[in-house]
Amino acid sequence: MILPIIAYGDPLLRKKGQQINKDYPKLKQLIENMFETLAHADGIGLAAHQVGHPIMLFITDASVIGEGFSDFRKVFINAQIEESGDEWDKEEGCLSIPKVYEHVKRPSKLRIKYYDEHFEYHEEEYEGMKARIIQHEFDHNNGVLFIDHLTPLKKTLIKGKLNDITKGKVDVDYKMRFAPPRR
Ligand code: NI
User: Fold this and answer.
1) Which residues are catalytic?
2) Helices marked H in 67-151 — which ranges?
């Protein structure tokens, strides 16, 4: 089932994610729905926060990027990351913040400890684009968005677009849920 993606402006995106265990209600279904939702929106990563569950869970599926990414269809639960390496700059976007693309600096390497969908423990190392996708989604699990990494000037420049998204004034070709209007 395709789930609506929560748009920027909803306070749920700002919650610190809770750790979960294998008894989390309908976990298998949630993960299946997240993969379906991600594919429908042509994304490369999706955090549970973005579909209304403020928990430490995100998925990646970067096969659209091409060769070398076919093994990157993964589920990360209760992840902890340690970053290293030089910072590098690349444009990012986010399914919760449609039509906003900005360059973000992030460390180039990381080590991640996490549980997969079967609650098996893993420790892995990533660099480059895969590390970046993990960093972006891991941020979501902590209530952080890629725009939080921008300079104050850049933040000012995108303010109008962000206000429009908050009000639902943006055209998207996937299902979204906008925050209820503030009184
Ligand atoms: Ni995102």
Assistant:
1) 137
2) 128-141
